Amino acid sequence: MSEVVSYTDDWRWERRQPLVDLGAREFAQGEVTLDDDGHVVTYTVAPGDVEAVIAERLCAYPSLALLNHVRDLSPGQVLWLTPDPDSPWVPYFSPLDAEAGIARIPYQNAMTAAGLAVDAGDIDGVRAIWNDTLAGMFTDPATIEAIQKVVDAGDPDALRQLFS
User: Of 76, 79, 99, 118, which is most buried with the most CB atoms under 10 A?
Assistant: First the structure.
């Protein structure tokens, strides 16, 4: 099982070993994309796919939806499976440093909107969502600074790891 782990307090995630594709099966018929070394990088969800079976097929842990900032999976969705340990990761449900009583629905709606903007290549839209909504929901200055650097740089792959 290839596990994603964090060795820091700011949730920078790293996959401990490359994923292995054990082959398509019932409820995991999607397409796998490999890097130049033959390691699994993405998985495109097919109709009828089930998250747990996809994870079993790829020997992947933890929750693929959680890693991709969504509650559920849908056909055609591209799952990014190997996080960059040098880039921060933003949780979908609420900031790690969230104070009691944070409005989680507005936070999750903003995360969803940022993810859609990243997927559409709308870097300015992602910046606006972060700067106008999400940044104010975090309290730890180091976390805000780390995320702001990624947002300002505008690298689509790094933004995808943050929000999509």
Answer: 79
* Residues 18 and 76 reside in one and the same domain: yes
Q: Is the dihedral angle over the CA atoms 80, 84, 90, 93 positive or is it negative?
A: positive
| Same-domain pairing of 17 and 65 | yes
Neighbours of 39 (CB within 10 A): 16
Burial of 153 (0-12, 13-18, 19+ CB in 10 A): exposed
DSSP 75: T
> In the structure encoding, which two tokens stand for residue 81, read together?
């499976």
pLDDT digits (tens, 9 = 90+) for 84-127: 888 888 888 888 878 788 888 999 999 999 999 998 999 999 99
Is the residue at 127 inside a domain?
yes
Specify the pTM: 0.79
Tokens of 23: 């082959």
